[in-house]
Design brief:
alpha/beta, six-stranded parallel beta sheet, six-stranded mixed beta sheet, 14 helices, 12 strands, about 45% helix
Amino acid sequence: MGSRPTLEAVAARAGVSRATASRVVNGGAGVRAPLVDKVRQAVEELGYVPNHAARTLVTRRNGAVAVIIAEPEFRIFSDPFFEQQVRGISRELTAHDAQLVLLWVEGRGDHERIARYLGGGHVDGALAFSVHNDDELPALIDKSRIPTVFGGRSVVDRSLAVPYVDCDNRGGARQAVQHLVSLGRRTIAHIAGPADLTAALDRVAGYHDVLVDADPALVCQGDFTEKGGALAMAELLERRPDVDGVFVASDLMALGALRALRERGVRVPDDVAVVGFDDMASVVELTDPALTTVRQDIEGMGRLMVKLLMRMLDETGSPAPDCVITPTSLVRRASA
């Protein structure tokens, strides 16, 4: 087996100095385009692999981004929402030649560990999502001084001017409830997400935008899980047997709600029309009847988070980029 090609060999092949070859290979600036082309051709011909440590010295970048999910491990691997968001993040990071480092928060005991890691210079920036409103995480991230983009609007600390990417949760909820109203449903309930997540609160607000005087008994708390949706639906039927429509704040909970209705002999949509939120294919394909739901581009939001972060890294010292709210749309199927 031959020895690995060196940077000196690349410089010699390209007919440039070692310093010039280093700047091109490691992403530095200030090299004329013709020389850049020569060095890149030499790299390809020789099969040269850049040294990561040297690249870090030149670019002041580690080529890694922390993805922090403020949920326990079982939620991350059981909820396809996280799979889709991480997929979008991973694909966009790959396009920027950056490595994803996944961190999750099992409890408050993990905060110090994550703060130490972020402050240790291991990553260039961070992406954080599913942050709960009583979480210390945003403040800890802020102290680390690394560029950060949040997935979802957070109300943890309004003094932290950090960019975020979110969908129009409130508008999407209005679309869902207005659709149920248009079908002639008169007693419309809502299965809400966790009360410490801004997305869930915004969806409750959208429900009340349409049904201003709704009976408080028609809103039941869920937890964004299938089991939580089933339990909430059962509770709603006990409270208000006359319910004839339900807006469910996530597809997973809607899957559970449909199961609870079916087990009690309630026909969908004849007796109760059901609308979910997310439009996750892996969940919708399990629903019977097929779920009418509000679509948000989960993977696309993950990609947008990376694009905002890369802009922050490329424009060091510039003001944080504007937050992005992506549109939602109602996807009509058989359940409503």
